Automatic annotation (TrEMBL):
Name this protein carries in UniProt: Holliday junction branch migration complex subunit RuvA
Species the sequence originates in: Solihabitans fulvus
HAMAP family listed in its UniProt record: DNA_HJ_migration_RuvA
Helix-hairpin-helix DNA-binding motif class domain residues: 72-91, 107-126
Domain remark in the UniProt entry: Has three domains with a flexible linker between the domains II and III and assumes an 'L' shape. Domain III is highly mobile and contacts RuvB.
Family label: Belongs to the RuvA family.
SMART domains, per the entry: HhH1
Length: 199
């Protein structure tokens, strides 16, 4: 398995780039966003996934390992091949895709050409519980579309600790309304502080 490539960019096409590694030029399929960051002659490092078929070996490149893992995860769903998985990441940034899956947002998922309502529902059913296991991007406040997942996880944690549902939900909603919440553990810590003051 070729998990990454590093070397000078020999050429950039509409759907791929050619990167020289050890004197060999590798054609790497990538999203327009990733390709836009590449410049001919400049050194680049990409996380990659090799897809093996009977008649071809195709290398897909990503700006980071997070996008590559999402690419692999998407292909575990029936009807989603590498091309459609790459198209999904071309339309939706990894954080937005993760949030749409976690929140069950069919409208966002059907923005991807080739994914209809049934396909979006299948993605949500099969991947909703798996996307939370992927490492979230570090730093910065949580995007609005990612807050639904955090709200659910933190509320469930508080219920598990014995807080009443209404009290837990009110505390979490109050915390998420503030700026600067970075992730689930941060939201849980702040919610516990709020509930501790009320006791």
């Amino acid at each position: 398995m070729i998990s990454s490539v590093r070397g000078p960019v020999l050429a950039v096409g509409l759907d791929h780039a050619v990167i020289e590694v050890g004197g060999i030029g590798f054609a790497v399929q990538a999203t327009p966003t990733t390709l836009a960051t590449l410049r001919r002659g400049e050194e680049v490092a990409l996380a990659t996934a090799l897809v093996v078929r009977e008649d071809s070996l195709t290398l897909f490149g990503f700006a980071d390992a997070d996008a590559r893992e999402l690419f692999r995860l998407l292909q575990t769903v029936s009807g989603i091949g590498p091309r459609l998985a790459l198209a999904t990441l071309a339309v939706l940034e990894p954080d937005k895709l993760r949030a749409a899956l976690a929140d069950g947002n069919i409208t966002v998922l059907t923005q991807v050409p080739g994914i209809g309502r049934k396909g979006a529902e299948r993605l949500i059913i099969e991947l909703r519980d798996k996307v939370g296991a992927l490492p979230a991007a570090e730093g910065g406040p949580v995007p609005t579309e990612g807050r639904g997942q955090i709200r659910t996880q933190v509320t469930e944690a508080l219920l598990g600790l014995g807080f009443p549902a209404k009290q837990a939900e009110a505390a979490v909603d109050g915390v998420l309304a503030e700026n600067g919440v970075s992730d689930t553990s941060d939201a849980l810590r702040r919610s516990l502080a709020v509930l501790g003051r009320k006791r």
